[in-house]
Amino acid sequence: MKSHAKTAMLALALIIFNVVQLTAVRAAEPVKLTVGYQPYDTVSYSAAVIRALGLWKKYLPPGSEVQFQGGLQGSIIVNQMLAGKQQIGYLGDMPAVVATTKQDVAKIKLVANTGFSPGQRCNVIMVRADAPNFKSPEEAVKWLNGKTIATPKGSCADRFLGYVIEKSKIKPAAIMNQSLEVLSTNMRAKKLDAVVLWEPTASRIGNLVGEGIAKYAVTGNTFGMPDSGFIAMREDFMKQRPDIVEDWLKTELEAQRFVLNPKNWVKVAEIVKGQTNGITVPMAWFSEYGRIPAYAGGSPIKDEKPFVFDDRIRNQLVGIYQFLYKNKIINVDQAPAGVLDDSVARKIAKDAGVRLPLGSIQAQDVSKAPK
């Protein structure tokens, strides 16, 4: 009897040893990743840094390959992730929430935060250059009544416009669904009264460091409506390669700290310029570090890097799920079980010995922008 028990124990030990060895071998295997990001969105600037500096090579297994695919807005990346063409995606808050609700197509989780601002990134309304010089955001909102406004449908900017209309009771003459490129062209042609969009395109068309065809008028700060960005991952990928999930978030942590460091601000702007068309270094710099005037809803804080989902972010996400459900954009009024999973991000931060949030960016006067 004792002999049989001893044999069984040895067999079990051998199985466990083989499993551990197999896991270790697999964990060391190189991986091919396709990452969707938005170089035309400040929530993806950390991804732009990772790409430009090759930071992923420090953390992923030797021989790994990473392909970065740029998208003009988050909905494009969501579709690619749902189709299994991208494993990792950098998204603004609205498309991030939408992505988690497509459970019948693919299970997508949000695993880390890439930025949290007082409505200075995506919740931005700009008016045509010859519009009145408003003394306050509230005055600008009243002017929008009866005007023609454009925004990319399905974006965080689209959600902000809907919120402003709901709260202020204004009635625009028309709301046009236009991409960043199209709405910029139409502002140049003076076919629009206002646009709702995100950085750095706002900096590009604006009158502070840009073309001067539009003026900042309203931000989410006016309405107490922050905006944020997220890293999304396919759940099947996370289960197959949990080691790569950790490796990528280690890379992201380093990139966010790079973006926060004032010594790197011009370098970050140069990196963004190198991965976009029409965005200059001053535009890229202002989009992440410059201060929007107070009369247009500017905040002393431009951006913050919580990295994980603290109470502010979770509360914001609760509001987004409810808003999108109320407006029949998604079919659930709360996050599906398990889709908001920052457990690995918290582990990475703890192992690195860093305090959270990682830091914040004090908005800088436009006079400090690089020339």
UniProtKB/TrEMBL annotation:
Subcellular location: Periplasm
Homology family: Belongs to the bacterial solute-binding protein SsuA/TauA family.
Signal peptide from the UniProt entry: 1-27
Entry keywords, A to Z: Signal
Alphabetized Gene3D superfamilies for the sequence: Periplasmic binding protein-like II
GO cellular component: a single term: periplasmic space
Annotated transmembrane regions: none
Pfam families associated with the record: NMT1_2 (PF13379)
Protein's UniProt name: Nitrate ABC transporter substrate-binding protein
Primary residence: periplasm
